[in-house]
Amino acid sequence: MGRRRDRKKKKHRDGEIPVGSFSDIAFLLIVYFLVATTLVKVKGVSVDMPSGEESSNASDNDKTPTVMMKGAEIYFKDKPITFDELMVRLDALNLKEAEGQEKVIMLESTDETSYQDYYKVMAAISKKGGVIALVEVEE
Amino acid sequence: MARKKKERRKSEVPIASMGDIAFLLIIFFLLLSEFNKDKPVELVLPTSASVEKNKEKPIARVDIDENGIIYVDGNEVSDSQAVTDLLLVKLDKTLSDKQRHVQLKCHMALGKGQFEPVLQAIAEAGGIIDAVGEKNE
Predict the structure, then answer these.
(1) ipTM, 2 decimals?
(2) Which of A139, B31, B84, B131 would give a disulfide with B121, using CB separation of 3.0 to 4.6 Å?
(3) ∠ at Cα A74 (B64, A54), nearest 5°?
């Protein structure tokens, strides 16, 4: 069997890549990213709580202001106050200028306190520049 | 006076660079976008007038739904101790303060017994809590 010597010469085709639809593809991708991107930032409060320090000695915390929550009621240094009064008291403490231990506000709550009420107070203390320390009552 | 007739020019818009512009826009969105990693946990967020936009990117996301079930990065965990354990792995001691933010989403009606152990767990692991809420004017 002999090889065919008279092969057909291959035609030289134009080696151009069709780029006409590139922009269409690109704009489709843009639309996809526009839809998938979340530009909305989450809102909230940043709370840096001290950890790992437990003190059973009440005298250590005598000078530290304590906010007590019984349900939706707020007590500041054992006196019942409204939320607006709490804001005024926190302003008076000038927590943003304070340093170290003076920034600390003890936050105590009872079982019937909902997260909504707790959050409101926690956000207020945090906004005024306070550092929240949780009070855990041992049973 | 006889006016000269204006010659009509060909009004073609140059579109050759449209593809380049489009791809530049794609690169911009690719770099800018952050895909939503939150798994949908049904909860109603608390409201406060003191909330602000969270500036830092959280290293972990903790959710507590209306039944008190805790999720860390969308995965259900057994209790607050598991939250501490998982966060301790993520919150390496070499991290800066900016990298220690932990996002907390909690249902507004939950009681102290359900949310406070989680707050303590995050604090114990060394995280800064970004408690998510809605703006209340």
Answers:
(1) 0.72
(2) B84
(3) 65
